[in-house]
Amino acid sequence: xxxxxxxxxxxxxxxxxxxxxxxxxxxxxxxxxxxxxxxxxxxxxxxxxxxxxxxxxxxxxxxxxxxxxxxxxxxxxxxxxxxxxxxxxxxxxxxxxxxxxxxxxxxxxxxxxxxxxxxxxxxxxxxxxxxxxxxxxxxxxxxxxxxxxxxxxxxxxxxxxxxxxxxxxxxxxxxxxxxxxxxxxxxxxxxxxxxxxxxxxxxxxxxxxxxxxxxxxxxxxxxxxxxxxxxxxxxxxxxxxxxxxxxxxxxxxxxxxxxxxxxxxxxxxxxxxxxxxxxxxxxxxxxxxxxxxx
Length: 294
Known about the structure:
Layout: H1 6-9, E1 50-54, H2 59-70, E2 74-79, H3 83-95, E3 100-104, H4 110-124, E4 129-132, H5 148-169, E5 178-182, H6 186-189, H7 195-217, E6 223-229, H8 243-246, H9 265-272, E7 283-286
Parallel strand pairs: 1-2, 1-4, 2-3, 4-5, 5-6, 6-7
Helix pairs in contact: 2-3, 2-9, 4-5, 5-7
Region (Disordered): 1-30
Keywords: Oxidoreductase
Family: Belongs to the short-chain dehydrogenases/reductases (SDR) family.
């Protein structure tokens, strides 16, 4: 595996580029996102755990998969259609000496989640960690430009799918297991061109807090948390915005640059490890220094 140091290799903002189809392909990005820090030494924080990651083929999901494998976990990833990206993630996980199960399908359909959870259980016999990470976004300049079809797709992919998948996985989790959801800085700040997307991310934040309270009340011993990324360099960015917008990506953060997936994945690792045993219902903000008081 090739590891790179983003401080040396990556520009503060990307060059102009655009991909015409979501969820986008990581191999077509330039530069490609950094997946794992060269300095990270695994210490078996997730030894022999089984992790199910939605949207695990690229971007933040790929970084989580590789980082968790380095920490001793076996991985199952659900992806929509980007087979090449999924196969590359599998290769990287296997280079860490762990197993990676690829599951292709549309999570906005509840029957897909049931089938995939069954496949994970048949392959590994258990699930210890669920990462709800898949999502889409379609910028529009006005609310009146958001069609019924777009609204339905955004909500079904970003929040309905989390309900579907979590509902299927939850009966198989045990005390000490955990769920981490990917929300967004837009949940706290809003976004003038991503009204429907930001609304789903607000729902994910509230889902995280509500499910945490519910499971703690039931004394299930299962923790539920979230990570709220800011501007992170993933395939969703060039496949969502035009080239001019992409070339300014992350420039307005206090750090003055975009973040890399390798800088987000450790937040998920912390929340899923025993280091976070007294943390539930919380959100970690990985956004380049923007203070959101959330």
